[in-house]
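Intended use. Records like the one below are meant for learning the mapping from a protein sequence to its folded structure. Do not use them to infer anything beyond what is encoded.
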Amino acid sequence: MIGRVGNTNKNQLQSDNKESLLSRLGLSNKKSSKKLFYIISSIHIVIVIIQASGVLPVELRAVTGIFEIGLSIVLSYRFGYNGMTLSLITNGLASMRLFVISRQINEVVVSEAGHLTGDLRIIADSASGLLVNLSAARVAVMIVSIIVAYSYEQERKYIKKLEWLACVDGATGAYNHRYFQTRLEEEIAQASLRNGSLALVMIDLDNFKKYNDTYGHIAGDRLLLKAAKIFMENARQHDIVCRYGGDEFVILMPDADSKNIISMIKQIRKEFTGFLNTEEFRIHKNEISLSVGYSIYPWLARNKDDLIIQADSALYQAKNMGRNNVRIYRDVFEDIKTFFNSDEQQLLGGLRASWYGLGKG
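Structure written out for the chain above:
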């Protein structure tokens, strides 16, 4: 059981300098020992479990700071205002020795409940004493374990960053077109399983090409970046904002009803108009506006291809109305087919399929 370190050991620990610590580590070669000491000192936090058989390898399991080390021992740590608190959850802890080595060697405070507090640097259980039995070989194994764990974590972070870069548009910070296609399939499948819905909102920056040609690509990039930021800030937590291409953006809205969709679009248009009223854009605010079109699966669209085509068609209708408009998809062929007889309706169905690129029915 880990308890409070005795005052004698505590005072002795506080007064130890580097040389005495090296002696406690059992390192005879002073030059190599000092080098080893500085390697250890450069590691911010080291967690080591020591048994009679030696040091157990440390495997870093997650970026959250959770380590899994044999015999069902789980060590988790967090940083507080006055230092570090280490919570211990363990089975069979009495037969083990725990050491935490950090940049400086100061005091040790181990509460009876197993929580380690204060300006924590070295911890030892009451049965083991301090680092008396820790040989140079064991320290070397410890360093290798830490380096392996650190390398594993760095590689994991690097891979995660690459994955993130692969799905994000570098100019705007929104997700890119490839990620949109992947998530669209996933969200359609999820909506189908839960009998839910998926709205696809398409947004186009009216007159962006003219603006870009007039004021330059740097100004155009700033406008795209600001627009994307407004879209992302006003989307719901689980909505997915992507750059579809050029000056077109899309927002996937799982289980959104018309009220959710209209509310978001209104807020986006309001904030975008406010942005255009800033000093930077005031002189040419009338050139830029937003046209929006959307459709909803499965209420209007039967599949993902339908959903894209319908949202794009609604966007086209909004721009055709003079830009700066919002339209939900409506099948114009369905609207007018009642004016035709059955033979003409069959021909109309073929024309509809050709127009929208859809199958009949």
